[in-house]
């Protein structure tokens, strides 16, 4: 079937950490994503000073861009190296502290306070730890999640959304029988069943 060849695929946490260690991070882009620029108005919907969530954030440059616009940014990422690179590449001073609710988890926060990046698995987070968000930028996140974890991931995202929250999702369209991913192929029908 369509996506059958990817259904059982798993990329482990160790494999992601290894990618960061080896510099095998072709998914990282130095330029802001053109679709975020194009749909920024949809994300903001006339509002200012939003809390915006970046699931599986890597060192996405859009975090700095939105923070500079006056929004507060929260991200989550497995790789500590990614988060430290983010702050150092943007010359942002930060501090580091443990997350009491998550054993082994660390919070990296810009000294100015408007960028908080959680170093842990997304599956360790809940709204009682990070609160709820007015907007979510999902690029390289749902498509990086193992197909068997999509349902869990989607219910978590829904849980992290405020009432009038907007969610921008970028997926990648290709033939899943020819490439193993990630990024995985997530058909539109599945997005509809995951998010309603
Ligand atoms: N959204 C980013 C990065 C995409 S790549 C961007 O646009 O550049 C996916 C990232 O998710 C990787 O950096 C990987 O280390 C991280 N990741 C994978 N599984 C994760 C998990 N369970 N929890 C948190 N981060 C995870």
From TrEMBL:
Residues in the signal sequence: none
Superkingdom is Eukaryota
Subcellular locations according to the entry: Cytoplasm
What GO molecular function terms would the record report?
A: thiopurine S-methyltransferase activity
What keywords is this UniProt entry annotated with?
Cytoplasm, Methyltransferase, S-adenosyl-L-methionine, Transferase
Q: What are its E.C. numbers?
A: 2.1.1.67
**Stored InterPro entries:** SAM-dependent_MTases_sf (IPR029063), Thiopurine_S-MeTrfase (IPR025835), TPMT (IPR008854)
State the protein's name: thiopurine S-methyltransferase
Organism of origin is Calyptomena viridis
Q: What is the lineage of its organism?
A: Eukaryota, Metazoa, Chordata, Craniata, Vertebrata
